[in-house]
Amino acid sequence: MPLQITRDQARFREIVRGRIQADLDRYIQRGELIGKQAGRLVSIPIPSVELPRFRFGEREQGGVGQGPGAPGDPVGPGDPAGGAGSGEGEHLLEVEVTLDELADILGEGLALPRIRPRAADRIVTARPRYTGVSPSGPESLRHVRRTYKQALRRQIASGTYDPLRPVVVPVREDRRYLTWKELPRPETTAAVVYMMDVSGSMGDQQKELVRLESFWIDTWLRRHYRGLAVRYVVHDAAAREVERDVFFRTRESGGTRISSAYELAAGIVARDFPRAAWNVYAFHFSDGDNEGAEDDRRSLDLLRDRLLPALNLFCYGQVASPSGSGEFLRTLRQGLGPRDDVALSEIAGRDAIRDSIRTFLGTGR
């Protein structure tokens, strides 16, 4: 690719990145990016981008303040004010950015520290690496260029090569194949357990806040881990594990027993994500209602004894609800106290998502 085109592309990407960064709050608060996700790419609508350039004016117009005129006359050419406009409106340009780029923009906008994996270099996978060339091997690994170079050398050495008729015909002895070996490659993996209260007091607006915040949390975590396993738990008076789509659509009418979610999550983590090999994150979203003081105590015991020892970070987001009491956030603050592996936030509305994300991910754990 020509150097000038490469420079123009890089300049365009920087301009796009700046536009997204400037409107980051709007993108965080709206769910349009979630529906525009395709694999590792996201389509983002931004105002059309024009690279600045000089334009020549009309020489016969004269300088500033010259020529006849009266108060109220329009300045410059064009139709007088009033009436329906005939000009073009603002055009939106959809650009594709990778989720990694989006995570970097999020990290810069919220000043998030990079995550320090707890179980770093615990999982080792074997990756092939091509190390040389051999005269034998499978046909799928034949090195065409090396094969023809060897055939050319043989024909020149034997005097059969004719420069006027440069035909190179490899024989079996000319064939060359890539050789490879498996190299151990340490990887870090992470698991996320999302828990959400789906009792009657958690309506569609509250679930939409959870959906938006979880998208950005996933994007940030996937930037730091090659593998990310995600599990979903819903609860009212009882808890159960569900698929992602069900997680955001389920709504029950029963009471709320938060300890049921913590007990199920602790079992999932202990069974599927052992501490020695996984970096585990748990996010719980609720409106703060719980069954009573007895279940508050049981929830705290489950957190202290089973969940927190197995987690990098536990995050609780209390979503504002007209019928929610909001008491459980106070219970956690009083029962756990300040801890590096616990992050608590209040999500009053869409404009609070940014601060909640910063509270959760700003720990760098």
Describe this structure as you would to a colleague.
- Helices cover 36% and strands 23% of the residues.
- It has helices at 3-22, 24-29, 32-35, 99-110, 144-158, 204-224, 244-249, 258-272, 293-307, 327-336, 353-361; strands spanning 37-38, 41-47, 92-98, 123-134, 177-187, 189-197, 227-235, 239-242, 278-286, 313-319, 342-347.
- Helix 4 packs across helix 6 and helix 6 (204-224) runs parallel beside helix 11.
- By secondary structure, the chain is of the alpha/beta class.
- The strands form three sheets. Strands 8-7-6-9-10-11 form a six-stranded mixed sheet, sandwiched between helices. A three-stranded antiparallel sheet has the order 1-2-3. A two-stranded antiparallel sheet has the order 4-5.
- It is built from eleven helices and eleven strands.
- The longest helix is centred in the middle third of the chain and has 21 residues, at 204-224.
- It folds into three domains: 1-51 and 92-111, no CATH class; 126-184, no CATH class; 188-361, Rossmann fold (3-Layer(aba) Sandwich), CATH 3.40.50.410.
- The mean pLDDT is 81.
Short description:
This protein is of the alpha/beta class. The chain has three domains: 1-51 and 92-111, no CATH class; 126-184, no CATH class; 188-361, Rossmann fold (3-Layer(aba) Sandwich). Helix content is 36%, strand content 23%.
